From TrEMBL:
Organism, scientific name: Wuchereria bancrofti
Family: Belongs to the NDC80/HEC1 family.
Main location: nucleus
Gene3D superfamilies: Ncd80 complex, Ncd80 subunit
Free-text function comment from the UniProt entry: Acts as a component of the essential kinetochore-associated NDC80 complex, which is required for chromosome segregation and spindle checkpoint activity.
Domain of life of the native organism: Eukaryota
Protein name from the UniProt record: Kinetochore protein NDC80
One GO CC annotation: nucleus
Known partners and oligomeric status: Component of the NDC80 complex.
Length: 201
């Protein structure tokens, strides 16, 4: 259940202002109140893609009615975006639920700017996808903790347990990768030895 009263007009106006301000801050090219009140499906999809790219720069949206609910499940949004909601984007009864999801996403993105493990997010080595997955999981865990107790703020010292979990997961993945590389090297060596034996015969 959403602790926010999304049917309250004051709450809706707060969410609208928050989304518009975020878009201004990030230099979104086409800002208008229509975007947060009664956008077309195309306008809303373009806005959502832009916002999500602040979290995942290489993200490309294809079919919003399928991808938006799946993405929000993946990043830990506590509510379900219903198919009926996604089929009526822009309708008065739908927009509060969509804005609720978008403002939650904006909060998550802004938090990552403070506590995100940037070395993981910006890694360019092999296994980059796995590292991003670990980083997203870390950010969501921190954000959920923050939501349960906003007094924690964005001070890294308040997220030591989450930091330790992340470091442990990274170390485990790196150990597995190292073992796999060693095994691959042994297989190559063995293959070369077998080839040489056949040549001698």
């Amino acid at each position: 259940m959403d602790p926010r009263n999304l049917s309250d007009r004051h709450v809706q106006q707060q969410m609208q202002r928050k989304v518009l301000q975020y878009l201004r801050d990030e230099n979104y090219p086409q800002i208008s109140e229509k975007l947060v009140k009664n956008p077309t499906k195309t306008e809303f999809a373009r806005m959502f893609e832009f916002i999500f790219q602040q979290l995942a720069p290489d993200f490309t949206l294809r079919k919003i009615e399928d991808e938006m609910p799946r993405l929000f499940r993946t990043i830990g949004y506590p509510l379900q975006l219903k198919p009926s909601t996604m089929q009526t984007i822009g309708a008065a009864h739908t927009m509060p639920h969509l804005l609720g999801a978008i403002t939650w996403l904006i909060d998550l993105i802004q938090m990552t700017g403070e506590i995100s493990p940037q070395d993981l997010l910006l890694a360019n080595e092999e296994g980059d996808g796995q590292r991003r997955s670990l980083a997203y999981g870390y950010m969501v865990r921190c954000y959920k903790k923050y939501c349960s107790n906003p007094a924690l703020g964005f001070n890294m010292d308040n997220y030591k347990d989450e930091n330790n979990v992340l470091l442990q997961l990274v170390e485990e993945r790196e150990d597995i990768a190292s073992q796999e590389a060693e095994l691959d090297a042994q297989i190559v060596t063995l293959t070369e030895e077998i080839t040489e034996l056949h040549k001698d015969k």
